[in-house]
Every structure is written in structure tokens, then in C-alpha cells.
Design goal:
Elements (H helix, E strand, L loop, with lengths): L2 E8 L1 E2 L4 E2 L2 E7 L4 E5 L6 H7 L6 E8 L2 E2 L2 H8 L2 E4 L11 H6 L17 H13 L15 H13 L5 E5 L7 H18 L2 E5 L3 H7 L2 E6 L2 E6 L4 H6 L9
Parallel strand pairs: 5-10, 5-11, 8-9, 9-10
Antiparallel strand pairs: 1-4, 1-6, 2-3, 6-7, 11-12
Helix pairs in contact: 5-6
Length: 246
């Protein structure tokens, strides 16, 4: 699936005295691994979340496989997109498998989950946790898992509907070096083996250079670079932190 933004603007930020995204034009092709880079407040997470309708579009449009995102088309499009929230976004008092099963709620009717999730969905969730080395922790409360294990649960949740696009908002945030590398390796394998379109918000230039095919750098809500990941250090050093009045 492809993602295309045309003159995209989102809600106005009074703190930054400008739209959060201000005239974004970009196209992400099927099977690309794209890193979104930039300083805090540049609009990376806002752009990622706009792809699934979590940030309202003020002007311009977003197309997923030539379908314009609207309230009418959003529910259908979301079934093909997996989203990994910053920090995982898990229900910490629930088990790992129940968190994974939450990822398929959008595709099931209320009556289908009235007495628990269907066996097919539970088997799928268990298989995903097994693939990520969490078989023995499937019924453990996620608050008792390590940061890296929690992030693998979050990836499994995003994958339970077999999406064609995977979006990850700083999936390595707060993880140690080894856990961060394990998470990025999982995303890279999904990209390579399943030809999945992957878009990841990152702060680590080294991670972007190692795993991404392409980098999109945002500054003050606009794209200032779109291309290969090499020679990006000079571009990032030129970015100016946003001024916030206090």
C-alpha cells in the first residue's frame, strides 16, 4: 500500500505559533522502509498519526492506495494499518495475549467478543507472541515485562490484523541498546520478508542509517530533506529547536 500527502496542514499550535504540519507533500511507496527524523516538535509524530486519522487534517489530503482518508473511509483503511504507539500504549494490568487481542477489536462486531475472542483470533495472538519469543509470557501481566518485551507485545498487537502498512512512533524510546536493536530487527524482518511498508519515527540517526531505505526530515512542520540516509548528519545539525514562549 502507498501513502500520499498533498499540501497537508493540521491544527494550529498556539505554543509554536504555527500549524503543526504546514504544507506536507510526500509519497511513500509500497514496501519502503522510511524513517521520520527531526527535532522535538518538528511534527514527526503528528505526521505519522495523521496517516490513521488520529490527527485531524485542516487542509490538503492523505491518500492510502488512492483512497482519500475521510470519516467514511477511515474504518476500512485502518484495518490495513498497524500502529505502534510511543511507549507501547499497552494496558499494563492485562496479560500480554489480551493486549495483542485488542488489536483486532476494530474488525470484530460487539457480539463476537461478548463471550471472549474467537479461537481463531486467540490462536493468531498466541502464534505472534511465540514468534517474538514470548510464548511463556503470554498470560503474564504486561506491567511485569521488561521494556523490550512490552514493545514486542505492542508489535504483535499491531500485526494481529495482518496489516499492509506498519507505523511505529519512536519504538525504541526508553529501551537499552540491545532491546532497541531487537525491536528494529523485528521491523526490518517484517519489511524484508513480507514486503510490508514500514514508517518509523526515530531520533537515532545510526538506527535510521542501518535499517531505513529512506529518510524524511521535518523541521518546523515542513519537509526539509527526503532521500537516502547517508550524509544526514549535516542536515540534522542545521535544524533549529522550536522556540516556546514561557
Amino acid at each position: 500500500m502507498t501513502i500520499e500527502c498533498s499540501q497537508l496542514k493540521t491544527a494550529y499550535s498556539t505554543a509554536l505559533n504555527r500549524p503543526i504540519l504546514n504544507g506536507i507533500d510526500c509519497q511513500i511507496k509500497q514496501g519502503e522502509f522510511v524513517a521520520l527524523l527531526g527535532l522535538n516538535g518538528a511534527g514527526k509524530s503528528t505526521l505519522l498519526r495523521s496517516f490513521v486519522g488520529l490527527v485531524p487534517v485542516k487542509t490538503g489530503e492523505i491518500r492510502i492506495n488512492d483512497t482519500i482518508i475521510t470519516p467514511r473511509t477511515l474504518r476500512r483503511i485502518r484495518r490495513d494499518i498497524g500502529l505502534i504507539f510511543q511507549g507501547g500504549g499497552l494496558v499494563k494490568q492485562s496479560s500480554a495475549i489480551d493486549n495483542v487481542l485488542c488489536g483486532c477489536l476494530g474488525s470484530l462486531n460487539t457480539w463476537e467478543t461478548l463471550w471472549g475472542f474467537p479461537k481463531q483470533q486467540r490462536d493468531r495472538a498466541f502464534d505472534l507472541l511465540t514468534d517474538f519469543g514470548l510464548k511463556d509470557l503470554a498470560y503474564q501481566k504486561t506491567r511485569l515485562l521488561s521494556g523490550g518485551q512490552q514493545q514486542r507485545v505492542a508489535i504483535a498487537r499491531a500485526l494481529i490484523q495482518s496489516p499492509q502498512i506498519l507505523l511505529a512512533d519512536e519504538p525504541t524510546s526508553g529501551l537499552d541498546v540491545i532491546a532497541a536493536q531487537q525491536v528494529m530487527e523485528i521491523l526490518a524482518q517484517l519489511h524484508q520478508k513480507q514486503a510490508m511498508t514500514v514508517v518509523v519515527v526515530l531520533h537515532d540517526l545510526g538506527m535510521a542509517s542501518t535499517y531505513a531505505d529512506r529518510a524524511i526530515v521535518l523541521d518546523a512542520g515542513q519537509i526539509v530533506y527526503d532521500g537516502k540516509c547517508h550524509n544526514l548528519s549535516d542536515k540534522l545539525s542545521q535544524l533549529t529547536p522550536p522556540k516556546v514562549e514561557v
